[in-house]
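FAQ: What does the model actually see?

It sees only this:
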Amino acid sequence: MEKFSKMIYLRPNMEAVQNEKKEYIGKLKGAASYQEMRELFLNQKKKDEEWYTMAEIANIRNTADTRDPFYEQEVQYMNQELPKITILDQQAEKVILDSPFRIEFEEEFGSFFIKNMEIRQKLADECIVEDMVKESDLTQQYSKVSATASTVFRGEECNFYGLLKHMQSTDRKERKEAMMAWGDLYEQISGQLDEIYDQLVALRVEMAKKLGFDSYIDFIYLSYGRYDYDAADVAKFRSEVKEVIVPVCEKLRQEQAKRLGVDQLHYYDEELIFPDGNAVPDGDKEKLVALAQKMYHEISPETGEFFDFMVEHEFFDLETRPGKRPGGYCTFLPMYKAPFIFSNFNGTSADVDVLTHEAGHAFEAYTAAKNIPMMDMVFPTSEVAEIHSMSMEHFAYPWMDWFFGEKADDYRYAHLMNALEVIPYMVCVDEFQHRVFEKPEMTAKERRMVWHDLEMNYMPWRDYDGHPFLEEGGFWMQKQHIFLFPFYYIDYALAQICAFQFYGRAKKDFKEAWKDYYRLCQAGGSKGYFELLETAGLDNPFREGTVRTVIESLLEDLKIQEMNKVKYHIRPVREEDLESVARVEARCFPAAEAAGYEDFLERFESCRESFFVAETEDGRIAGFCNGCCADTDHLADEMYHNTKLHNPEGPYQMIFGLDVDPDYQKIGMGAALMRYMIQSACERGKKALVLTCKDHMIPFYEKLGYQYIEVSDSVHGGAKWHKMICDCSRLDLQ
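And it is asked to produce this:
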């Protein structure tokens, strides 16, 4: 076998391929026995490997240099022809499904194999062939626009990946400048990306309608083989992430800010985990690949053999360069039973992550291809495929000393932290796409508003230090999956919950954990999601309690002793709570601003539906949030003391105070109380929530969904106050 660089590309004659498939369909219809039909089927699969391999070579070389006109044209040619092939394959599979030999096919290849055939009957039709071609052309346009974007930063021409390296500098000024340049670069191409995405959304919705689906969401779930769960299950998973993982990530970010010695963590600080710099691998591409080869020989004989094969035939394209598509991927050349790894090295720890993550995908494909007779079943559904990649990252931990030397522990900590804190971002990307396709007529500005609101919901620590484009919600554009692989991104979050399970097992018994992982790789795509989880002995992420159990097992390694240092619950206030409430108020505010017991009693009697407390496990009132409802959005000082101004049916929920006892601060209780109040107000049909706050609290409330309005006319306590409003119509209340 040649090295990849020497492999000759020959454009497949797709007209001949189509004619051959039509002949194949006729022969299937005439098959007199299962053996005859089976032989026809497997022979055709073998023939398909030839043209498909050529198509993948063209695609790899196009992404390696999006400016090369030859391979750009070749990919365009294949994009035009592939939908026609899809229709013919669908027709051939219908013959098999309708044949008397369907049962034998199911007995040999499995029920999931047949289920996929059945579902594919719903996913394509001649009426969408032109649409499929147009979709491919649009995604290719996106890749080219994002790949060719560059800017000069400190005298160096940088693409997006080049700027990310500068965003890990120990020099905060450099990090900020790099982020600003990165955001500016996205803003420069945002018009083109918005136009491409407008067309993609409209096109995808139209395709789903033509095929008889109520929504594109229903279509894409089936396309990904999500037969075991639906969008409602995913929404519950997102809620569990918000409840369990987001508070842990907030604490990790707070600790990171302390380590870095900054009062406010900005986005350009997020990637710098340690003040003296992140762990950086020692060596160039050749050295890193050589170390990885040695590592894989120690992990297992199978991984050693696999990586030798990859190195011998140079099935890698690792270094970033102008014109190369951003990101990374692993694909497969079925004619050679060979995976191929594509990435953009940038001199950070992410380079090592490529040699574990993408190698996890590649190892699975290399392994499964030995046991499975057709490429259709080599890769599993994507939630499982990402278990292979993410788990390999964790299996490689014991060998990280080779790559990072004395900074290996820093790498392991940072990697584990990042693996956890990226989950809220993943579910944010997922919900963003659900929201877009639930209202596909959204404008570009509205999409940014949706992203901004979701970002505050799932990543309340996120702060872009005033960059206008990023602050208004432009960050979503940097996620290429939204353009190229819609609705894929949630699979990373589901897979990471399983990868954490392998991580925990490997710490206790590496060999046994590896056996389960290897068994999962051998199974390829022969079974569905839930069945493959059982094959590997993994707990289902959708099962209630799985996320919490898995995350709790990580806390010691993340140097967090308990996920909730103080256990508490939020409930409506009771009259017997009021003395405790007054004591908390007295600890939180100076006498000139603090309300007393009599004030709280009046509020309880006039507007108890707007009064909630946080009660600890041992019965202590640790915090509260209270207010009233009114007909106006003007929060006058008089309203605090004159209950005649309160109207329980009024459309505006006023907030009088959000208090957390100093003994219980810095654990997220205040944010939890306010989220509870917002949820309650919106469920009661209120139009908006209104509060006034001091200067230093403005960012806190902005992250909870409030918008700054103006300096208030309040003279309460002789302090300066700012009016803020939270519009219920703009909030996500899941």
